[in-house]
Design brief:
heterodimer; A: about 450 residues; mainly alpha; two-stranded antiparallel sheet; about 5% strand; B: about 325 residues; 14 helices; 4 strands; globular
Amino acid sequence: MFMEYDAATFSRMLTGLTLGFHIIFATIGVGVPLMIAFAEWMGIRKNDEHYRLLARRWARGFVVTVAVGVVTGTAIGLQLNLLWPNFMQLAGQTISLPLFMEVFAFFFEAIFLGIYLYTWDRFKSRMRHLLLMIPVVLGASFSAFFITTVNAFMNAPQGFELVDGVITDIHPIAAMFNPATPTKTAHVIVTCYLTSAFVLGMIGAVKMLKGDHHVYHKKALRLTMMAAFIFSIGTVVIGDLSGKYLAEYQPEKLAAAEWHFETEEEAPLVVGGMLNEDGKVNYALEIPYALSILAHGDPSAEVIGLEEFPEEDTAPLIVHYFFDSMVFIGMYLALVSLLYLLFSWKKKDWMHHKVLLWAIAAGGPLSILAIEFGWVFAEIGRQPWILYGIMRTPEGATTSEHVDAMLLLFIGLYALLGTSSAIVLRKMFNNNPVAHELEHRGIEDRRDRS
Amino acid sequence: MNYEILGIAVLWFFLYGYLIVASVDFGAGFFHYYNKVSHKNYQVNKLIQRYLSPVWEVTNVFLVFFFVGIIGFFPDTAYYYGTALLVPGSISIVLIAIRGSYYAFNTYGSKDSRIYSFLYGMSGLLIPASFTIVLTISEGGYLDVSDGLVTLLLGELFTSMYSWSVVVLAVVSVLFISASFLTYYAFKAGDVASYWLFRRYTLFWSGPTILASVLIFFAIRRHNPQHFSSMLDISWMFLLSLLFFLGAVFLIYRKRQLGLAFVLVMLQFFSAWFGYGASHLPYLLYPHLTIYDGFVNETMALALIAAFIAGLLLLIPSLILLMRLFLFDADYVRGNR
């Protein structure tokens, strides 16, 4: 390849590639079941067939994304062992419990998803069919929880003693519930919900922009935007707590994200900007006191700067861009869903205004981007450590000579899977539009058209 | 019984579970494609889809469970197998990814596609072959461990009679297990045409299955005499396996008690699988790694076993529900639901 071979660097690239591809499907996999359950519940409660059809169609598309999520999840599970054998040999002693439990949670979800999908018209009671969705939602969220505790452990390892490179005195529960666990897991789960709500909202918005003003799409939009608003509030609150966590436990990660170089009180927040070659920040917006508030909830608090840490222990400064983009998109999503709710309450004429529909449609891809940015920030932000403070990343990597070829192999695989799933999803819904399916199921009523 | 034995027995059991459900799944994918290109009968493919659709996701979890579990109980396996298996392991991942995705694309997409059906049918047959590399290298002689580096000797692997005999056994077993299950399933569905077809497939693949098993014995004797002699010590397990096999073929040939026949096939592989596993002990990787090297510490072993029991309490009722709703629901099997 075009760069000098180094197994650790290629292992990082391949792991990043697989995870980057997997989380698109994993995020949808965690959030969409909840939205399907909401839709079906609304359908039963209001006795409205539109909502039930919404649940049906979401579920149908969901299966295709789940398939890719499952296989890429299997890939990353195996790749952890193949690319980071030395890390797994050491950390396997402590992280195997949550890994094990994640598989159980997923198993549980898989069983009930299979049942749910094939029993739409089998039970007399509609409620019973909806109940099948509860284990799916729980399984999805718990597998996200368990796998995130593994990542939290890598950021804040505890629950063992390291004596001359050998792990002893292991406390599996302490390792799982480390200081990073609460904020990390909560942030991951709520953003999965938020992203899924926006991705589904996007579908309705795009349909309406294309001129299809069926009441079905309006109902979809209303349901998803209400959910999105609630989840975006959750995201902002938990995001703030995550900042306070970093200030206390991983100050150099926060300092790198905020380009906060000198330790000072009343620290300002640097928003945007560019770093020039002399390490000076240009074109940035500085908000006085904001970083102190973000870090400690007190405008005069002292925030530790990057100068306090040796250079080999700090993350690349590029993480600032990812952090800012993630926060910006989070704010954007909260604002758009808030506007929709305000209009639906006070200004109904503006509810389906083109500009707002465009903003909602953009929220779909943007929310996925925010997930990617957030993970890139979290992962590059803890470099150079694979196990924070204990094992540096290159020490954990494989010594194999073929990682570069494997990287090419997987680039090909993900390109193939990404394209095929996009084609299949498009075909599935274009060949069977809503109006057609409503008529087919005998639900359609002329009065619904508006 | 100590934790090491308990741990490996549990994991071995899950791998056995994977062997059965995945074989049915992989074989069905192959038959699905084969029937499509040879225009045998369309009914058969509907039958296969009806069984597979609700369960395909579950199959994969058995596998994940195994490799997560083995790292949990025996973290040192990560070092040896992880380093050596990068290339073959990655190829297996690609095959699994293609199979799983294209199965879903083909089944849930807007229409049945010949290319998608080819991709998932063929990759399914290659997956068992690619997995057998792990079993092969566990016999020793295919790894170079020196200077703290573990390297897979590809030349040795590709020219060894043992490794090829394992590949052959894996592929024919998949077709045999799958066909015997589908014979039973087609019979229950009252689908006469499919039943005759799968009965023929089962009888056809029974010959190669038993030939390949015999071949393995000779190959192991040459490759790893120590393992061969421990296999002789528990030869009753392999004889039992042969009896189960003969019983299954007899029942299918006489068209009687097809459910029992499939159970006998499961028992045939159960006794052979545990016989092979037990005689392989205490080695995880001959002669470098035993189950006593680098076993996870006791607290963790207990936590894993506790999690395992709790998980089973959750899973077993759910699996029973899944089977009652689909596998053992006569109306569903016949396609009335």
